[in-house]
């Protein structure tokens, strides 16, 4: 099933549909991937405008819901590493996983840093585990697919989808988040460290390194291209559905994209 056939128009970025299994080559894959990322960025920019004037309680809930993605991403990345052969991509993703986990310091793990951001904007600790049931289902399905499918699918799903698309969405989210009056009025006491890490130069470099490592992986394993593309397409589907569910819950009056 193509991405355009699996989502409603509200959550579907406009980009060329993936080709059939025998039609892929390295150039066509990157053309597809770049078009998909640009379309997703445009969709995110359009939707994230709702953050700028969202009621404060809704804003807190919106930010809280993102934490479940970053938690599950870490577990899925570890699963992907166990399936990948030794090589540059495995080593790079291992480095990224180590950084996500705080490089041996649990208090420096990125979910902990994000929770400190949530606390600084007034999210009570007893609300941190209240994830949207549909988003829990989406994330659980991704983990199941990671376990069942081959490594190339997982590279597209979590290597490209998690690392590259995550940075795209978070950068757009941060641009609109910091415009919110509450964020501006309380900027001095908000813990911005998570955003400094994930929307700054370090994460941009991660994306570039990941792309280069995946390109080398493609050159070494050209037969992996169809599954890699399918995993990336699946990630875009899930990622946009994940965010649509959050908008529906936190800003239903702004959930329709014109």
- How would you classify the helix and strand content by structural class? mainly alpha
* Rg result: 18 Å
**How far do the termini sit from each other?**
25 Å
Average of pLDDT: 86
- Helicity level, as a percent range? 55-70%
Explain how this protein is built.
The protein has 258 residues and is mainly alpha-helical. Helix content is 69%, strand content 0%. It contains eleven helices and no strands. The protein has helices at residues 3-6, 26-48, 56-83, 88-100, 110-120, 133-148, 151-177, 181-185, 193-198, 201-220, 225-250. It is globular, with a radius of gyration of 18 Å.
Descriptive key words:
258 residues; 69% helix; disordered N terminus; mainly alpha; disordered C terminus
